[in-house]
Amino acid sequence: MNAEITLSGNEFVQRFSATRRGARLARRLASQQLATWGVPFGTGLSDDVALVVSELTANAVLHGNVSGRDFELRLLALPDSVRVEVSDSRGERLPELGLPDAEAGSGYGLHLVAALSRVWGVRPRIVGKTVWAEVVGAAGSAEAAPESGPAVSNLTT
C-alpha cells in the first residue's frame, strides 16, 4: 500500500492497493477526512460519502484491477457537496448501471451511487478511468457543506 498522502486545502488524495483491504481502508480514511473537515461521523453526509466510497472502491478492486497497480481515492470539499473520485487502471471496463442480479446479490453498487449522488459519471485518463460522484448533504442543515470548500461551478465531468 502506498503511504503517500496529499492534503491541500479541501482536497484529500491517497493511493491504495487494489485489494479488499485497500477498499476498506479507503472508506475509513474518507470518513476520517470528513470529520477533519467538520462533517461528524454518523451524519447523513458522512454516511452517504462513506457508502459511495465503499461502492466505487469495491468496483475498482473487482472490475478495474490490473495486477501490480493501485487505485486512487480523491475527495474534494465543494461549497455544497463532497466530490468522490476513484481512479483505476482499466479504461476499457466502464461501469454500467445495469439490472441487479437478485440471486447473486450483486449489481446494486452503482444504483446506490446514483441514488446518493446529485450527479455521477466516468472520465477517461491516459491510463484507466476515473469514476466520480457528487454527494450533497441534507438541504439547509449544518452538514450540507464542509467548511470553506473551494468555489467550483458547472463541474459535471
Provide structural commentary.
It is a single chain. With about 160 residues, the chain is of the alpha+beta class. The chain is about 30% helix and about 25% strand. It has a 6-stranded antiparallel sheet, covered by helices on one side. α1 runs antiparallel to α2 and α2 (about 45-65) packs antiparallel against α3. The longest helix is centred in the middle third of the chain and has 20 residues, at about 45-65. It is globular, with a radius of gyration of 15 Å.
Largest sheet: number of strands, sense, barrel closure: 6 strands, antiparallel
Mean pLDDT: 81
Give the C-alpha Rg: 15 Å
Task: Tell me the span between the first and last alpha carbons.
Answer: 28 Å
String of helices and strands: EEHHEEHEE
Which regions have little confidence, pLDDT < 50, spanning 5+ residues? Answer: 1-8, 139-157
Number of helices: 3
Helix content, binned percent: 25-40%
Backbone shape: globular
Structural class: alpha+beta
* Percent in strands: 25-35%
Kindly state the number of beta strands: 6
Sequence of strands across the biggest β-sheet:
1-2-3-4-6-5
Indicate the multimeric state: single chain
